[in-house]
């Protein structure tokens, strides 16, 4: 069974950076639902491309089943990986119930890596990272943080009750954060 680690934290908590470092050093493959959907949409002869396109045109949400299928396909391409980092997912109750319905019995959910960071620091980081993301202005960032607080944090609490959350303070420099992250993975895998 595939090992899965959910990586959650507010916008600007460093999920992408930390996931790359884990992928580079620990034999886990970094998967982002958003990236997989974009790639599938653009892939010639794609199985779900037209359907995804149609949902985006209609402004409706791509069914979680499609995303889960894409995640599953991606895992099957890397059968020898130590595990998979699912970045920024599940971000709400719908995401979680869709995932559980489709994936339970197929994957082993190892733990949730929770990159914890105070809101004001996260917002400043996003504003300063200068990646030119159009959604990195103050108003839309505040909204994303609010959505995170309203919808994603309860998911982290849910996993917390199951004793599955490994919290790392990601306010610190990335090297220090990553040192603690490695310890979490070592403990989980007895590496
Ligand atoms: C999008 O809207 C069109 C027109 O209402 C409809 O025919 C189509 O089924 C919708 N697509 C999806 C994926 O719901
Ligand atoms: C998770 O929920 C969000 C908000 O409803 C939605 O936009 C997104 O497509 C969902 N993710 C997946 C993978 O279904
Ligand atoms: C978050 O929850 C608060 C309180 O229920 C609500 O007023 C606000 O509109 C919600 N914000 C978002 C972005 O969902």
UniProtKB/TrEMBL annotation:
GO terms for molecular function: ATP binding; CMP kinase activity; dCMP kinase activity; UMP kinase activity. One of its GO terms (biological process) is UDP biosynthetic process. It comes from the Eukaryota. Its main location: cytoplasm. Its cofactor is Mg(2+). Keywords: ATP-binding, Cytoplasm, Kinase, Nucleotide-binding, Nucleus, Pyrimidine biosynthesis, Transferase. Binds 1 Mg(2+) ion per monomer. It is found in: Cytoplasm; Nucleus. Residues 32-62 are annotated as: NMPbind. Its EC number is 2.7.4.14. It catalyses: UMP + ATP = UDP + ADP; dCMP + ATP = dCDP + ADP; CMP + ATP = CDP + ADP. InterPro entries: Adenylat/UMP-CMP_kin, Adenylat_kinase_CS, P-loop_NTPase, UMP_CMP_kinase. One of its GO terms (cellular component) is cytoplasm. A ribonucleoside 5'-phosphate binds at residues 38, 60-62, 88-91, 133, 144. ATP binds at residues 12-17, 129, 172. CMP binds at residue 95. Pfam families: ADK (PF00406). Belongs to the adenylate kinase family. UMP-CMP kinase subfamily. PANTHER family: NUCLEOTIDE KINASE. Catalyzes the phosphorylation of pyrimidine nucleoside monophosphates at the expense of ATP. Plays an important role in de novo pyrimidine nucleotide biosynthesis. Has preference for UMP and CMP as phosphate acceptors. HAMAP family: Adenylate_kinase_Adk, Adenylate_kinase_UMP_CMP_kin. Monomer. Consists of three domains, a large central CORE domain and two small peripheral domains, NMPbind and LID, which undergo movements during catalysis. The LID domain closes over the site of phosphoryl transfer upon ATP binding. Assembling and dissambling the active center during each catalytic cycle provides an effective means to prevent ATP hydrolysis. This is UMP-CMP kinase. It comes from Caenorhabditis briggsae. The lineage of its organism: Eukaryota, Metazoa, Ecdysozoa, Nematoda, Chromadorea.
């Amino acid at each position: 069974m595939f090992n899965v680690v959910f990586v959650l934290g507010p916008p600007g908590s460093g999920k992408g950076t930390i996931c790359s470092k884990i992928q580079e050093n620990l034999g886990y493959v970094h998967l982002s639902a958003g990236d997989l959907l974009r790639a599938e949409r653009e892939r010639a002869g794609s199985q779900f491309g037209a359907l995804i396109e149609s949902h985006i045109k209609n402004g409706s949400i791509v069914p979680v089943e499609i995303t889960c299928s894409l995640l599953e396909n991606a895992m099957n391409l890397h059968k020898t990986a130590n595990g998979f980092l699912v970045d920024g997912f599940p971000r709400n109750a719908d995401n979680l119930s869709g995932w559980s319905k489709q994936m339970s019995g197929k994957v082993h959910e190892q733990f949730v890596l929770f990159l914890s960071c105070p809101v004001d620091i996260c917002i400043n980081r996003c504003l300063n990272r200068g990646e030119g993301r159009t959604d990195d202005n103050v108003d839309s960032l505040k909204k994303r943080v609010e959505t995170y607080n309203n919808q994603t944090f309860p998911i982290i609490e849910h996993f917390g009750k199951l004793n599955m959350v490994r919290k790392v303070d990601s306010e610190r420099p990335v090297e220090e954060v990553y040192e603690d992250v490695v310890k979490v993975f070592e403990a989980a895998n007895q590496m």
